[in-house]
Design brief:
By secondary structure, the protein is an alpha+beta fold. The protein contains seven helices and twelve strands. Helix 1 packs across helix 2.
Amino acid sequence: MALFQLASASLLGLDHRLPLKEKNGQDALWIHPVPISIFGNVQICLVADGCGSGAHSEVGAKLGVRLLASAIARQIERARESEESPRHQFDRILEAARQDVLARLRVLAQDLGGSFSSTINEYFLFTMIGAILTDSHSVFFSRGDGLVVVNGEEIWVEPEDDNVPVYMSYALVETSLKKRPHELAFQIHRVVSTDQLDHFLIGTDGLRFLKGAASLRLPGKEDLVGPLCAFWEDDRYFRNHDALRRRLSLINRPHVQPDWDGQRLVTHQGHLKDDIALIVGRRIHE
């Protein structure tokens, strides 16, 4: 397998820091290696975003990335040689993993007691954006909204009607989507030969604010926020495991500046209103 450098970070958005409206960060990420399989060495990369109206949806996001990564790993470890195309093969792997996660969430929600549907809505609604990197092919998929970048191509996964994503846990409760189960399955966006993959990024929908702020100045500084491509082009994000988080924090740090003429303090807010979780990777060139 081609070697990839990986960097990752998550950040609490400004809207979740407002007085009387404070919330835990609702985004989560996870990187899970699978060292031995018919696909060679595998890296599973996942980011999730808990439903904004869910009282405790950060719980589902953080559980979801770990449960799904483990479920995908189990399916990959069980896989046998096949004549199927990589897309069909990973369609099956992802669907089996999805059903595995739903079964585990169902048991957990039942064990928590109370109304089953209320528990799902409060704790277990989350989006998912993922990448599976194998020796031969790399697969990028989602359920819900967010961003996938493959070799510079930006794939913005849009929410469905009324700006509401279709969460995978909708399969556990009564909705109109139960009659359209294909809309609850993972959507594969790209399957590329790994030897043709130079860089990638997966992230939650909060990246819209980051992209929109590219031409703005960092709070209290002359430097610009800059484009998304810096995250896979700049060496510092791969040399220091905390550099990406620090950069996001700098972009979102409020800055207080005195206005001497007006005899007041002016606060320049950060640029990232929503939570962000992202994983970026690039090929190691010998």
